Amino acid sequence: HTHTHTHTKYMYNPVTQEENAIVHLFALEHRYYGKSYPEFPDNSSPVSNENLQYLSSRQAIHDVATFIQYANGHYILNDGNPTKWVTFGGSYPGMVSAWSRYKFPNLVHAAVSNSSPVQAQLDFPEYNNHVAKDLGYDVVGGSAECLDIVSRGHEEIGELLSAEGEEKEGGYEKVAELFHVCNGAEPFYKDVKNKNMFLGDGVIYIPAQGNDPSCGSDGSLCNIANLCDAIIEEYSQSGSAMESLAAIAKRQSYRDCTEVDWHGTLQYLSSDAARRDGVRSWIWQTCNEFGFYQTCEHDSSCPYGKGYHAIEQDLEICEVAFGVPPEEVKANVEKSLQYYGGWDMDGSRIMFANGDVDPWAELSITGGKGSEDLPTVWVKGASHHFWTHALKDTDGEAIEDARLVIHGQVMEWLVEEDEKSGSEVDKNTNTQVFDDVEPLAESYVTE
Q: For residue 70, which of 82, 175, 202, 416 sits 20 to 30 Å off, Cα-Cα?
């Protein structure tokens, strides 16, 4: 599928304004996402375990290479002259962008990789540690008080859910009533894993990854500033951290009750229904390539229920829903690191841009972390590849500056000649900070 995409138009417009610039923009849809699910002769589900074998990032970068070769042969892109291709993406597409250049430098001239966690990692406690930091980050409206209320609220819930003897029943009932748990306290009695899923990923939604400072003029809790203001206001009225979280959870909910059913979750993730929004496809990739499991352990600074989300929870999903046992998941992550290099990838003409509000930045190349031979941009006050979103009048100076430096780097690279095998890696160790206050294979199947 090729089409222009809103999230990349900001790069397109200024480039076309350059003198004598001929720019063509193609947006590729990743296999097994959106409308790009393969059809199989027996009409079986494309997201069955057997049919998902053709889904991997390695397949994806070969798809990119195949498309470039096809486009070079079927379109007149540069008045018949050789075309310089620049890949661009944010989040996982940012990973694909970087890896396409890294593995196919003969086809991809340069790459921009936004908010891309290229360091595959099985257990990723740093994600929720970063969420805690965001709750206390005054640049985006967080505060120490907000973080304290969220953390203490989860501790109070944990104390009630871990109660024994005569206090057990009262604790379960109180939590179930406060948070409108479907079927009351029954799920907590039924399976300890229900308690884990309820508390280990938080009883409220914290928009750290998707923080948008411009949203919420209507008072909605769509960014950290609005959320923290509401949490502190609720606490000032109730004096209870737990009850404050319950009030916030109610405001965020669009259902009559909160479903807490670990067994049901496993059943859903094992079914074709989980094709929706690419959920089953992505979790397959985490089990077979990346890990990225956002745990909340006792020794972390996670603001949720510490000790209620261990790595075993995610490994159970891999084994039950996809038939991938724990040891194989661990081996798959190591294979990805060996294949792509992680923080140690030694490519050239790849720019990494990250926002300091984004938890995924913990596994990206940022200048202070990962290869020092690749140019990086650090955008203060910005969440997950926020500068790639559609332009808004409310975009701050840091976002606008990031776009300009990415554009400038791409234009600089476009005047360079295509590298041949054995060419030297670019040497650019400066991280710019913006502060606002193999031969192509016909097919590849992951072993």
A: 416
